[in-house]
Amino acid sequence: AQKITQTQPGMFVQEKEAVTLDCTYDTSDPSYGLFWYKQPSSGEMIFLIYQGSYDQQNATEGRYSLNFQKARKSANLVISASQLGDSAMYFCAMREGGNSGYALNFGKGTSLLVTP
Amino acid sequence: DADVTQTPRNRITKTGKRIMLECSQTKGHDRMYWYRQDPGLGLRLIYYSFDVKDINKGEISDGYSVSRQAQAKFSLSLESAIPNQTALYFCATTGTGVRGELFFGEGSRLTVL
After folding, report:
1. By the 8 A CB rule, do B100 and B92 touch?
2. Which of A84, A112, B54, B88 is most deeply packed, by most CB within 10 A?
3. What is the pLDDT of residue B98?
């Protein structure tokens, strides 16, 4: 079964607007971490933000925030004030305790295009 | 210099050929990983290693082998490449901190004709 689900293959947003990228996850492990990565067209994987399952507050990193709704098992990424350079693929990922050597399970990604 | 370095960055090879992708890291991490990325499928784990004596299969290890030559070096081999192994391959490392994010290499794009 898919552990990480990203239901939006592609998204458009106008420059300076906010955008939410959806991510739901499936785990029975009480201890887990949720991550978002950005992959620009150049191909590298850039870590954006992390949320631990026991963290009480939503994570924020500059223009990125993670809307963590534990009961719904969702971890949506919110990008505020979009910029042209935000156009990229975005991947949600999860690490479950010590399973699989602390590897991350990735979703299939969402392609974001920021328009002028 | 990048903390995680992959070579080659691009390789075109033919069906049946042996190919090795190399990864080295300067972060001093014990945990290293090889992932494969295909369009529309995200990243999938091939192998991971905790140290030179600890090698583990991931989700899609068939057709691949790995070697952990040292703490800093982790190589991925395709003994007899086939066209459906055409993909972008990433090496990654992580430390033992609470967050445990992966640090990725720049990727190796492999095309098997």
Report:
1. no
2. A112
3. 75
